[in-house]
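Anyone able to model this chain together with uridine 5'-triphosphate?
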Amino acid sequence: MNKDVIVLSLGGSVVLSDDVDHLFFEEFKEFIQKLSKKFKVFLIIGGGKTARTYIDIGRKQGFSEYELDYLGILSTRLNASFLSTLLSSSNKLIPESVDEAIQITDSIVVMGGTSPGHSTDFVGACIASKTNAKMYIIATNVDGVYDKDPRKHPDAKHLPEVSIDALLDEYGNSWNVAGKNMVIDGPALQQIKDFSIPTFVVDGRNINEVKNIIEEKSFRGTIIKK
Ligand code: UTP
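re: yes, here you go
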C-alpha cells in the first residue's frame, strides 16, 4: 500500500535558531519518526544563517547571483545533512534534484536545495506536486502570513487564511535575489497555484502546531486557499 505523502519545508532559520536547543531536536526527531510510520515524509531544509552569511559576504565581493544561489544551496545541503544524521531512518546521501529525491525508498527523505533561481520553498512545492502530497507544510520562523512584514511593522495583521491569488498579486511569481527572505518565494507560489497544492504556513519551532495541521485540527498559522 502506498502511504500518503507529507512534505515539510523546514526553514534554515528554524534549524539554526537561537530559540531552539537540543530538546527541540529530540522532540522533532520523535515527531518525524512517529509521523513516518503513517506517512512518507519529505523534509526540505533551508539554509538559514549559514546561507545568508555566505550570500552577504559573497555579494560584497561581487559574486554573481548564480554563484550566490549556489552557496545558498550548499548551505541548505549542510543543514539537510545534519537533519538526516539526526533521523536514523532517513536517507544519508542528500539528493541534488527533485527527481532523485522521489526515487528514494526510505520513509523519511531529507534534502536541501536543487538549482539556482528559487528557494527551498519551490523544491518542496515540486515534491508535493510530483508526489500528489496530502499536504505541504511550510514551517518557518513566523507563525503564518501577515498583511505586512511583522518583523518591521508591529501593527501587522495575522491572516489565518489567504488566497493564493492574493499572494501572487502581492509578491509576484519571480525570483529576484539570492538570500531573499520572504515567507514563500514567487516560483513556489506559482507552483502551489498551478497544482492546487494544499499548503499551510506555521512556526516550525512550535511542533505542536505542526501536529495540529497534520491531525486536521485548528492551528495557529495560515491556510493557503485556492
Ligand atoms: P532557503 O531555501 O533557505 O531560503 O535557501 P530562505 O527562504 O532565504 O531561508 P530560510 O531557510 O527560510 O531562512 C537559501 C538560499 O539558497 C539559494 C537561494 O539563494 C536562497 O535564498 N537556493 C536555495 C537556491 O538557489 N536554490 C534552491 O533550490 C535552494
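The CA atoms of residues 44 and 78 lie 12 Å apart.
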